[in-house]
Amino acid sequence: MPALPATTAARLRGIASGLLTAALAVAAHGAGDGAAPSGTAVVLLAVLAATMGGLAATISRTADVRVLLGLLASGQLIGHLLLATAGHSHGEPESITPAMLAGHALAVIVGALLIAAGDRLCRAVSRVATVAARAVVTPIPSRQAVVVGADQPLRSALLLAASVSHRGPPVRQVR
Fold this sequence. Notes:
Blueprint: H1 6-33, H2 40-58, H3 65-85, H4 98-136, H5 155-163, H6 171-174
Helix pairs in contact: 1-2, 1-3, 1-4, 2-3, 3-4
């Protein structure tokens, strides 16, 4: 029995990546424009979050921080483009400052590190829990009970006896 199936760890990593992508995109555009996205922009962000989460869950190398970092950074770039396409303005192009880009980069780096650390911690805790469960729960030895005789007839014999008809022709007609 594996400590934590790879699919479970990948699903958790995918959920965290998708939610972080959407949350950072909403926070950045909300801070830049002062309003949260609505309508089409929300739907596009939901599709983006699901796509990024699916990619993080299916690509086996996303457990590596560098791959996860690239995935989250591309999610931020695509999120920015989607929100701009949906008509949600991010202020003037001049409002994109180096401080804002540094904030995005820092958030992506910290997010990737936290997701990778959470993945490793989840695996470690599940391994410990599996070992502890194996130590506490000992297997029960299986012995087959052999029945030599019984005071009750077998069920098949009872069904056979019930299926035999005891009815015959009338006595008058036999003589």
